[in-house]
């Protein structure tokens, strides 16, 4: 029950998960997908407590609660008193799976702060989310929806707590392209996946990735889907993480007319293929490929979440489809 003296017009915040990197777009590209974290505000106390307490969470968070952490970070910098807030959280986004669960939780904490105080500029939300997450590629689509690329510059303003100034560029994701994603039953910590990366790459590999990322974006914007398979190639993070994701090499090697391309989703261990048709058959093919590599998986076909509208105290909503994904197929 909301405490007396506070009129809460809408007490739920909904944030999409995301798939990032998309081949060679390391720490740069991300797409919001139709998996969701929902946080419901159950009580607001105007005691100046400046904290958020998650009273229930499904699934239970591992380690630090990112929803609470983000709210607290915003509250520390607030110029006006911030209430104590109690919320319930439920998420469809699997943890430690390369599908943006941490970024979604962080954004949920920021959005709850907006709900009980006042709207915050988008660039400020992105800067805080990047500071807390360490990279912006999942945070940007969680905030804005659709496909985004991010540009981060060192912040030289000594008055700011932000280490980086971050811009999010928004791109069209084709409505007919779906993500068929296989998620292993065992997660992979982002910290471990990032530790596997080389500290330097060759000029040849850097140029290769730049060329292929631009080819990927061009193919999406022009509908030249025959370019996608080659454009998703990467010479940096995917080869380095292959030892941590035993099924990755086999998935990248899939040669099927209905599979337009494949990549490691975020830090993994989820892997994704792009498809336009015959999703049931592509699901079966992806599952069989992972199982043959010794990895039991859950397979989902997901559309991009295209429409994230600001959901501060002005009452605007996120539009969430009633059936956000196709049925899960588990091993």
Question: Can you walk me through this structure?
Answer:
By secondary structure, this protein is of the alpha+beta class. It folds into 2 domains: 12-155 and 163-172, Ribosomal Protein S5, domain 2, CATH 3.30.230.10; 178-302, Alpha-Beta Plaits (2-Layer Sandwich). The protein is 30% helix and 25% strand. The chain has 10 helices and 11 strands. It has helices at 66-76, 101-116, 122-133, 139-144, 190-195, 203-222, 228-231, 237-241, 248-252, 279-292; strands at residues 12-20, 29-45, 51-58, 84-91, 147-154, 164-171, 178-184, 261-264, 271-275, 297-302, 329-330. The strands form 2 sheets. Strands 1, 2, 3, 4, 5 and 6 form a 6-stranded mixed sheet that branches. A 5-stranded antiparallel sheet has the order 8-9-7-10-11. Helix 1 (66-76) packs across helix 2 (101-116) and helix 2 packs across helix 3 (122-133). It is globular and about 60 Å long.
């Amino acid at each position: 029950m909301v405490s007396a003296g506070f009129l809460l017009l809408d007490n739920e915040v909904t944030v999409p998960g995301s798939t990032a990197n998309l081949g060679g777009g390391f720490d740069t590209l991300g797409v919001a997908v139709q998996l969701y974290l929902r946080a419901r505000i159950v009580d607001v106390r105007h005691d100046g407590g400046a904290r958020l307490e998650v009273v229930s969470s499904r699934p239970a968070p591992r380690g630090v609660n990112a929803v609470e952490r983000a709210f607290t970070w915003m509250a520390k910098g607030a110029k006006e008193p911030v209430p104590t807030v109690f919320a319930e959280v439920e998420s469809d986004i699997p943890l430690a799976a390369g599908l943006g669960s941490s970024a979604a939780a962080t954004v949920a904490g920021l959005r709850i702060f907006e709900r009980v105080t006042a709207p915050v500029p988008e660039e400020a939300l992105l800067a805080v989310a990047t500071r807390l997450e360490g990279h912006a590629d999942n945070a940007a689509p969680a905030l804005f929806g659709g496909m985004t690329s991010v540009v981060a510059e060192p912040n030289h303003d000594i008055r700011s707590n932000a280490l980086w100034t971050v811009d999010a560029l928004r791109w069209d994701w084709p409505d007919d392209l779906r993500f068929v994603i296989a998620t292993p039953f065992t997660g992979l910590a982002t910290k471990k996946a990032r530790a596997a990366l080389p500290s330097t790459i060759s000029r040849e590999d850097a140029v290769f990735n730049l060329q292929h990322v631009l080819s990927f974006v061009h193919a999406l914007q022009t509908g030249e889907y025959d370019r996608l398979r080659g454009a998703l190639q990467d010479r940096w993070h995917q080869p380095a993480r292959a030892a941590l994701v035993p099924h990755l090499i086999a998935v990248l090697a899939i040669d099927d007319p209905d599979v337009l391309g494949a990549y490691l989703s975020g830090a993994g261990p989820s892997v994704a293929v792009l498809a336009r048709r015959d999703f049931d058959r592509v699901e079966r093919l992806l599952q069989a490929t992972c199982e043959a590599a010794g990895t039991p998986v859950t397979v989902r076909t997901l559309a991009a979440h295209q429409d994230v509208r600001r959901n501060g105290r002005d009452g605007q909503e996120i539009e969430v489809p009633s059936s956000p994904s196709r049925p899960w197929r588990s091993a």
